[in-house]
What we know:
- Residues 5-165 form the N-acetyltransferase domain.
- InterPro entries: Acyl_CoA_acyltransferase, Bact_Acetyltransf, GNAT_dom.
- It comes from Hymenobacter mellowenesis.
- This is GNAT family N-acetyltransferase.
- Keywords: Acyltransferase, Transferase.
- The protein is of the alpha+beta class.
- It has one domain (4-176): Aminopeptidase.
- Helix content is 26%, strand content 33%.
- The protein has helices at residues 15-26, 28-31, 49-56, 102-116, 131-139, and strands at 4-9, 42-43, 61-67, 73-82, 85-93, 121-127, 143-150, 159-160, 165-172, 183-184.
- The protein has an 8-stranded mixed beta sheet with strand order 7-9-6-5-4-3-1-10. The chain has a two-stranded antiparallel sheet with strand order 2-8.
- The chain is globular.
Amino acid sequence: MTVPLYLATATTADVPRLTRLVNRAYRGDASRQGWTTEAHLLDGQRIDEDGLREMLAVPGAAILMCLGANDELLGSFYAHATGEKVYLGMLAVEPGRQTNGVGKFLIHAAEDYGRQHGCTTSKMTVISVRAELLAYYARQGYRPTGATEPFPTDPRFGVPRQPLTLLVLEKSLVEAQAPPGPMAG
Length: 185
């Protein structure tokens, strides 16, 4: 059965449910239902409500939400347009809904957000030991730049169980893409 997916832009009223979604997708037992869990790499939460409010307040930034029937929150993705690049981060999909097209829907929507803001390149960072996630983003057209960034040391984003490094990935947004409008997933 296919379910229509809808795009919405988060507001501060969405912060409590976004916090629950992101933490379920990344950490703890619920995250282990999906294939994108970080629970084996980090302890603690992925984000808190204050952190999400800060992200929503950044000029040029938005948290895009994928909604299903009855306004059900299926996933979210952070997009921050600055100059020629849009930074994408914190892709979260409800663990039981992964592999149903929600992630691709949000990636296309975030890339379109960047294009609408004049960006020609999409950038993201991924934990270097996340081979399955790096392969997923490679299938979406993202390539390693050779650059790395240190993993954040703020415990609000989790406490690493081992030393972690972020790989910088980029994708050109110049080629034409279909708009993210409603689609079956």
